[in-house]
Amino acid sequence: MTLTDLKGIGPKTEKLFNKLGIFTIQDLLYFFPNTYLNYDQPVPIEAINEGEIQAVKGIVEKDASVINLHGLNMTTVYIHDISGKMKLTWFNAPFLRNTLKSGSVFVFMGKTGTYKGQKTMNQPKIFTPQDYSGKTGTLEPVYSQVKGLSNTAILKAVRQVLEIAEYRPDFIPSAIRYNRGLLDMKAAISGIHLPKSMDDFRKARERLAYNELFLFSLALVKKKNSTEELKSAFLIKKSKRIDEFIKALPFSLTEGQKQAVSDIRSDMSSGFIMNRLLQGDVGSGKTIVSFIACLEAALNGHQAAIMAPTEILASQHYDKLKKIIDDNVFGLNVVLITGSLKASEKKQAYLKIKSHEADIIIGTHALFQDAVEYDDLALVVTDEQHRFGVNQRKTLSGKGKNPHTLVMSATPIPRTLAILLYADMQVSQIKELPSNRLPIKNAVVNTDYRKNAYKFIYDEIKKGRQAYIICPMVEENDMLDLENVTDYVTKLRKVFPKEVSIEKLHGKMKPKEKDAVMDRFLHKEIDILVSTTVVEVGVDVPNSTVMMVENAERFGLAQLHQLRGRVGRSGYQSYCIFVDSADSKKSKERLQILASSNDGFHIAEEDLKLRGPGDIFGIRQSGALDFNIADIYQDKELLKKASEDAVYVLRSDPELNEEENQVLRSRLELYLEESYVL
Ligand code: ADP
Ligand code: MG
């Protein structure tokens, strides 16, 4: 069965689904909502919680009035209930005049606010009381969208698929499912798309998260069992040239960097396989440490590879390392491999790798495609490890004869979690930032502050600095009232004088286009970069001093901290402006944690305290291992259970040979082969 077999999907619509990454029925089943609209009981007008999406039920006081204001058509109506009065407005919806008649009663749902003491709602949805009570208590899924494909159309397709879907035998052993009280997959999948209640949703989410955490834990335990204290084929001796190189650096290494370099060098020369995690907050200078390791491996006559999570980051590393090698006359060759190379370029690069003409290879996960053969791969560095799963590391390691591995992460993981997530590794930590840094100045503001922010940014630009502005969406989405990169650039160009260069960057652009924009930003040809979170990890443009995040309430704190890490990378004073559009007490409290501290560990701990289990609405925590559903912070307890279960299963049946573990075994094999999706 294919997508076009579904009602409402012809070849044209199918293309739109493809754009969302949905090619098969199976893909559609696993295309989960981003968030849900919550049809709660209407609240009394006086009792609204400013900034939240809520419903009120009220009587229309007078027929709606429609006026034209600065070219905008605005419809206004006043409603009241027994507790109070409220003003509702809509843009470009004059036809509402026919519905909103004096004395009629409706339920209005939208984001609540107050303006000059008056309770307000902008653009609320309108329901008859009957329609609304039919929906009360339910959750309506909200999916990612592309232009031309509405949420309703996606939902319609999903409903059909849920009816006919067949599920493979469950890979979680039944004893575990029973013991942990997990839903079966049919219930979980339909519960995540169409939850009947919050509780329903939580159970569904728990099952799906457990799947990911259990497979992850199994892979981890297996890896640990197989690599402990293994002898290494690569004895990488400490070289004088590296000592000299470190001395000649334009800055002196921090204590943490020195310790990490020393840990790595003694690991690699120990005769055993290195398996080390280098953890350090954003901007702590992990890159140079990894370069030192690669250079040493290459000077010893071996090959080393660095894997980065994005093309932008890979090419940035490539440029930097190439410059270092040229400046220091190391006489080594670096090669860059990304998915966007032309076939002929790829072939050339592969040849260089196989013939060992290439000493250091930098790239995205394209590094471990089957076609890439290494001559003598002794060291694999994975940058921003949280973007990859254990399986990826394994695949790349499989390219050599068990090379040394160095994994770098900026994710500030509390100790209790680190023990579960990095059970198989030694850890080096960089605890301080380079000494030339000034602490970033932070502000949490509401949308009224934008004007000031733009003026502030303009002043920085006049001083020769640059700025990032982050929006959560690429394009407009008719279900979510969030800032998007495309419209924002247009808007901003009208605000700033012509000589200010403003460009956009997002994940839907072609890799070549992204590279070009990043390159121009790095070379100061762009003053303001309006971007999605594609710049979240690793990007290093030290001249930029302002990070402004729109809809900051939509992001996880760890993610915001990562974004903030894009500035404050030089001796210039840097600033971070979090625009809180929800402007609710809860969101303020959360963002205030960020504003009051620049310490990633402190933020992670506070974040943990604030969010209860199952509290994911709207905000997805990125930062740590990039699971699809699971979130290591929120699912800390579940991870603990999954990892206990994994240890238990493998202890009693190490090779998963027993009858009852057959399904699990093949699922795990698949998991270990999958290129990079956890
Ligand atoms: P991250 O740990 O986030 O990957 P980077 O390695 O990108 O950080 O380093 C951030 C910036 O700090 C880079 O521009 C780098 O050149 C610079 N840097 C690294 N180490 C030092 C140091 N010891 N002193 C001064 N600047 C440093
Ligand atoms: Mg980095």
Structure characterization notes:
The chain is α/β, with parallel strands linked by helices and 678 residues long. Among the domains are: 40-136, OB fold (Dihydrolipoamide Acetyltransferase, E2P); 230-430, 3-Layer(aba) Sandwich (Rossmann fold); 441-597, Rossmann fold (3-Layer(aba) Sandwich). It contains 22 helices and 22 strands. Strands 12-13-11-14-15-10-16 form a seven-stranded parallel β-sheet, sandwiched between helices. It has a six-stranded parallel β-sheet with strand order 17-22-21-18-20-19, sandwiched between helices. β12, α12 and β13 form a beta-alpha-beta unit. α6 (185-193) packs across α7, α7 (198-227) crosses α21 (636-652) and α9 (255-268) packs parallel to α10 (286-299). The radius of gyration is 27 Å and the shape is globular. The chain starts with 10 loop residues before the first helix and ends in a 5-residue tail after the last helix. Residues 612-624 have low confidence and may be disordered. The protein binds adenosine-5'-diphosphate and magnesium ion. Magnesium ion binds at residues 286-287, 383, 538.
